[in-house]
Structures are given as C-alpha cells and as structure tokens.
Amino acid sequence: MLDELLQQLTDALKARGWMLATAESCTGGWIAKVCTDLAGSSGWFERGFVTYSNEAKQDMLGVKTATLAQHGAVSEAVTAEMAVGALQHSRAQVAVSVSGIAGPGGATLTKPVGTVCFGWAVKDGAVRTETCHFEGDREAVRQQSVEHALRGVLHLL
Could you tell me the domains of the chain? Predict the structure, then answer.
C-alpha cells in the first residue's frame, strides 16, 4: 500500500514540476526516508527537517515561542508553522509536517498516546492541518503517521 501511495505521489509531484519538503518530529525522518528510498526521488524530494526538540522547531523552521507555549508541540498550530517554515527554508513548493505522541510515554489527559498533528502547506497557498488518534504501539503510531502524512500531500495535489 505504501509503495502504491508513493508512486501516486511521485507522479503527481513530477506532473507539476514540484518538490516536497518534510518537517518531522515524532516520525524522526521516516517520511523523508521512505521518499528517498525510491530511485529518482531527487527529482521531486527537496529536503527534510527532523525537528524533535522545541528548540529545533524554532531554530530550523521558525516556529514561534508563543505558539509552543500556548498550544504545545503536539498541536495543529505548531504543525502549521512547521509546514510553512519548511517551505520558507527550502526550495520546495509543498511541505508536510508532523508532531505527535507515539508513546509509550509523553501522554497527557488531553493528548493521549497516538495523538498526532499534521500540517500541509503549498507555497503561496493554503495551509491545512489535522489531528488524528492512532492505535497501537510506538512503531504502529509512527507508521500510520507516515502514511497519513503522504496521503495528505497527495490530497493537496
């Protein structure tokens, strides 16, 4: 299923002559890895940012301190800023961001394990965000996050 999704994404990006950038927290670069596993991905994959800490989100992507303080790292407000920051700090035309609680720790009453926020942004265009709640262990949450993130990029295209 992931192979088919990646092929559709590749075709859609190539058809537009667009490049993709990723801004990842809980997936730790997994989205960039599956993209660059494909031969020829240099034609449509521009770069990936792994911004696990709040400081990295601020330094590399320009996420505002106030946004982190008000909403927390696992929030649609932060993933929106991450996606926009990935575009601003790259040559890509579309970006995806992800921040979540893969577990087993880190959960709160309002953000249980499996809570993952996403952001998608198009250069000079719309920003879309979404929060999902995935089931399973750390690996399962992260894998579902990768697939959902890529499906979201394809949806934008």
Answer: 18-156 (3.90.950.20)
